[in-house]
Amino acid sequence: MIDASRRLLTAAAAMVLVVTLTGAGGLPEMAAEPPVDAPPAASADDATEVGWRLLASLDYRTGEPSEELAALAGKLVKIPGFTVPLEDWATSATEFLLVPYVGACIHTPPPPPNQLVYIEMDEGKRAKLDGWNAVWVEGVLEIEMTESVYGYVGFTLSGQRVYPYE
After folding, report:
1. Which span out of 39-48, 95-104, 148-157 was modeled with the highest average pLDDT?
2. CB-based contact 70:133 (threshold 8 Å)
3. 154: part of which helix (H) or strand (E)?
4. Which sign, positive or negative, has the C-alpha torsion 92, 97, 100, 102?
5. What CATH topology corresponds to 24-164?
6. Is beta strand 76-85 parallel, antiparallel or unpaired with respect to 92-93?
7. Which is nearest to 106 in space by CA: 64, 66, 152?
8. Rounded CA separation 143/130 (Å)
9. Which residues contact 62 (CB under 8 A, 6 or more apart)?
10. What is the pTM of this model?
11. Residue 150 banded pLDDT, cuts 50, 70, 90
12. In this structure, are residues 96 and 83 in contact, taking their beta carbons and an 8 Å threshold?
């Protein structure tokens, strides 16, 4: 019991450290190697890396993106983040949310819409969900304010690939 409590406290301290060091900008920009068992739909060089600061340039009150963000609409991108299942306790899914920091979820208060990406995996694909570990999600980005039972979301992404952030 004591060992489990120590591991939980260590994990919580690590999460606080990550959020503190990365600030509102989300995860630091780092290169990631694709996993050996999952060949990419397109080469990683083809996907444009998009950070959370760029996503935050969407004015969610008016729906107007910055010029740089608007240029990415309909393009293949990869975004780092943490997965949030839309079903309780799901370990894999065809649809989920991507958020910039661990612990963010759709409960009160949710992150602003420009900090939420709704992911729907391409047909026949499922993503392994582990909200405690960061991932890269690759797919086609669309900028659209959507109201759903999950709250307001600023982006949708047709997910082609999900792999560990390393």
Report:
1. 95-104
2. no
3. strand 151-164
4. negative
5. OB fold (Dihydrolipoamide Acetyltransferase, E2P) (2.40.50)
6. unpaired
7. 152
8. 25
9. none
10. 0.72
11. low
12. yes
